[in-house]
Amino acid sequence: MPLTPKTRQQLKAKAHSLKPIILIGNKGLTEAVHKEIDIALHDHELIKIRIQTNDRELRRELFAIISETNHAEIVQMIGSIGVFYRQKT
User: Fold this and answer.
1) Which of 42, 45, 54, 57 has its CA 20 to 30 A from that of 68?
2) What are phi and psi of 76, to 5 degrees?
3) How far is the C-alpha of 87 from the C-alpha of 69, rounded, in Å?
4) From CA 9, how far away is CA 4, in angstroms rounded?
5) What is the pLDDT of residues 13-51, one digit of tens each?
């Protein structure tokens, strides 16, 4: 379910003080990274992920893949950091 603008704004405010808890390096999105993202979203609902690459298009693609495979909403993307939200059920 897409986030409303008001909800997105509230989540951005909450995420401001968060540190990235998932770092994606040279090996990219491995199965282990997907599992860690799933666990982090389950535990925290709102997380920051840093992708260490200078390629802007690659970062956008990876953020989209993360969102799709983990059923999470992209709250915000700033440079190499993406903020993701998945509501606990």
Assistant:
1) 54
2) -160, 145
3) 15
4) 9
5) 999 999 999 999 989 999 999 999 999 999 999 999 999
